Amino acid sequence: MMAIKAARAYSGKPKIAKCEGAYHGSYDFAEVSLDPTPESWGNGDPKSVAYAKGTPRSVLDEVVVIPFNKPDRAERILRAHAQTLACVVIDLMPNRAGLIPATPEFIAMLQRFRKETGVLIVLDEVITLRLGYGGGQAVFGITPDLSAIGKIIGGGYPVGAVGGSADVMAVFDPTREKPLLPHGGTFNANPVTMVAGEAAMQHFGQDEIDQLGMLGDKARAGITTAFDEAGLPGQVTGLGSLLRIHTHNRPLTDYRSSLMSAPEKSQLAAILRRMRDNGIFVNERGVCSLSTPMGVAEINIFIDCFRAALGATQAAK
Amino acid sequence: MMAIKAARAYSGKPKIAKCEGAYHGSYDFAEVSLDPTPESWGNGDPKSVAYAKGTPRSVLDEVVVIPFNKPDRAERILRAHAQTLACVVIDLMPNRAGLIPATPEFIAMLQRFRKETGVLIVLDEVITLRLGYGGGQAVFGITPDLSAIGKIIGGGYPVGAVGGSADVMAVFDPTREKPLLPHGGTFNANPVTMVAGEAAMQHFGQDEIDQLGMLGDKARAGITTAFDEAGLPGQVTGLGSLLRIHTHNRPLTDYRSSLMSAPEKSQLAAILRRMRDNGIFVNERGVCSLSTPMGVAEINIFIDCFRAALGATQAAK
Fold it and tell me: N or C: which end of chain A has fewer CB within 10 A?
């Protein structure tokens, strides 16, 4: 929310663009088109679809929705709205949209659009920060104007933060007159969170990231092999310490291709229920996140549990 | 933010009403007309004035601004918009608008409007919760549809929460299908905050509230006496453990009457600077909040420090 407000304050322009199916918190503008369906997304370009009941029509009108990983269509839509856009909000691997990495072509388009129009790039790194020592932006090779971060930087306590280039961040500057964008609030500058977050970050260096990446590769390979052995449709997406299990074999590029059908949802639910009964809880979307206390032993337990759940699901057919 | 979104989801209506000068967090809609000036507030009814640069015009259009403690004018404005209003957001003693308690007439108007139109009352109790064991709503005698709470319920950790009547809170219910208003996010259900908050609340009972109220009365009386003795214009507002120092003698009813002129601001700053130099820091608006570790000794130190600062300010004239 503060990153979007900062982009508006810096540019003086009201609209934002975001990718269909991408989650960026519960700020109304960021929630637009978070979970559209074939019934609501229409035939042509993505439409602004409300996520919650009661979302004002005016909020929908301030949001331009683009398809993830479809650079040509996305660029055409962005250029049509460039005059009124404050920013494009991007998650490089949006978990609700399939945990599919952004393609080099999509990133190149965003950078070209940024350069030619001046519309800011706001990177949502709340989840992807953990992918690299320089965040997801270093891994994917994109330099945003603003980055929204959170989760791991709080060391277990609630936290959110915004960083960016000095000229954009100047909108928050309270040292002279009232800033363009005052930033106060109960959540700000909590001392315990700041101390815990710094301690956690001191213990999260390149070695830890490399180790988690190796474990993630191992987990993804194990899941792929298990699907093959069981003869069940399925695949896994993700990078580094993040992965998502899918119960179909469609080519995955964006939100629409990742959206599960009712039978695919049931299949995933059946697998995850069996895993839970055997001691491993995975969230209902099949998204997993590895953490530094884990080692090879834990990944092996995870893969064994997953394989057993697949086998039982196959046998129950 | 979640309380406003809940009122919209429950009612299906887009607009909110709020009082001029009242602070309700950094959600754009809640920030409208937080700090208007005689230049921006116009001649007639309060207008929707942006607080931050870049606030979309559409946001301003979704917010109806009413004058605090002016029941007749406020009611006329509210009734004109009742068909599109999801809720009226109220702080019973808004600190940015002077820390002036709502009058019985203003509260009676709100309750009548609620009853006759069905437009929900959202009470911002983030600060006023501490005024009574049943919150500010028990002290002032108003039953809201939704209450937003925070600060003291976190035991020192960042926290916010929304409560209300079962039929309105049902918009969050995730136990069946997707709720009308899904409520997820990084800040939710933090275990440490929940444990610390419960512990803090277990230690904050009627005795503590009574004691803080007694100390607050003592502090306010001391400030009033000190202004009298120094022969300087000034007064103090507040209730219970909350107080705000004003460097003028205007009758205080609402935001506009409490807004400091440049000389009044300088006078307050001079007093607070002298207090700070003598070891007591008061925020730039002159708002103070007492806490349970304080006793009569601390209040006496505070009053002595304030009296000395007034005397030095008087002598420097």
Answer: C
